[in-house]
Amino acid sequence: MKLDRVLPYSKKILKLALAEGDIAVDCTIGNGHDTVFLADLVGQSGHVYGFDIQKEAIIATSELVLNSGFTDCVTLFQESHARLLELIPKTEHSRIRGAIFNLGYLPGGDKEIVTLAESTIAAVEQLLSVMEKEAVIVLVVYHGHPEGQVERDALLDYVTGLDQKKAHVLQYRFMNQVNNPPFIIAIEKK
Ligand code: SAM
Asked: Is residue 146 exposed (0-12), middle (13-18) or buried (19+ Cβ within 10 Å)?
């Protein structure tokens, strides 16, 4: 057998968590690949809310969403994910069943604009405060760049401190690979 690689495994978790009609959140839309993946899972009766602070990401994702036929079930915000509860309609909060963060910088974009622990953790806390039991948050942690290492350490500290009565926390990581390969943190609300 082949063990699931990191990115396919992140998708597998979301596939298990999400069904038609659910609400999903793409917390770092980048070029929009995850946004479209989530839209395909929740379908026209569900909805995906996407966040990115960069205009390029919003433009690239809007185009991909349009070309994939998902315009009606996707809403994009050029805002930090740290504002997600303010921006996602309140009536949708408890219907959020899955969220993804692909941390780091925009592929092909400005490598100086990266996700930061403070806003990442703020967004995770907001999601955990409203999500129902068994909803999941998947974080793909890229830590090859200096700020990524700071974010990784802060995140690992934060998630290991989460009360086990409130969440299951999984780390999925290939331990013998060189050059800081990405790894997954998955949080299931209990
Ligand atoms: N999932 C994306 C894809 O499929 O192309 C890749 C995401 S990329 C690794 C990380 C993205 O996070 C960048 O586009 C960056 O602009 C965005 N970002 C950084 N800080 C953010 C924040 N506070 N809120 C939302 N997005 C942020």
From this structure: exposed
Binned at pLDDT 50, 70 and 90, residue 102 comes out as: very high
- Distance, in Å, from the CA atom of 91 to the CA atom of 117, rounded to the nearest integer, reads 28
> Residue 165 C-alpha to ligand 1 middle, in angstroms?
30
Angle (CA) 140 48 22, round 5°: 100
Q: What is the DSSP string of 103-157?
A: -SB-TTS-TT-B--HHHHHHHHHHHHHHPPTT-EEEEEE--SSHHHHHHHHHHHH
Report how far ligand 1's centroid is from the alpha carbon of 114 (Å).
7
Residue with tokens 């990581």: 173
Mean pLDDT of 116-145: 97
Is residue 127 a contact partner of residue 137, using CB atoms and an 8 Å limit?
A: yes
- Cα(81) to centroid(ligand 1), Å: 9
Whose alpha carbon is nearest atom 20 of ligand 1? Answer: 115
Residue having the nearest C-alpha atom to atom 12 of ligand 1: 28
DSSP assignment of 164-188, as one string? TTTEEEEEE--TT-SS---EEEEEE
Residues flanking ligand 1, CB < 6 Å: 28-31, 33-34, 51-54, 57, 80-82, 102, 104-107, 113, 115, 119
